[in-house]
């Protein structure tokens, strides 16, 4: 690699790739556990799923703010 700065598109693509790797760990290591997690998620209400999504987004934003500031 050269001395060129990393662009935003490179960072976003790298972040997406890392997300795919992390998301693939549980189904690869323990497909039975992954299926169990999915079955429990299917029984959750829309409000519960939205709350989990909101918490995840806020945690991600907090981590970005903490590590990039």
Please explain how this structure is put together.
By secondary structure, the protein is mainly α. Helix content is 83%, strand content 0%. The mean pLDDT is 90.
Largest sheet: none
Shape designation: flat
How many whole angstroms does the radius of gyration measure? Answer: 16 Å
Overall structural class, as computed from helix and strand content, comes to: mainly alpha
TL;DR of this structure?
By secondary structure, the protein is mainly alpha-helical.
Tags for this model:
83% helix, 69 residues, mainly alpha
Task: Give the arrangement of secondary structure elements.
Layout lengths: L7 H22 L1 H12 L3 H23 L1
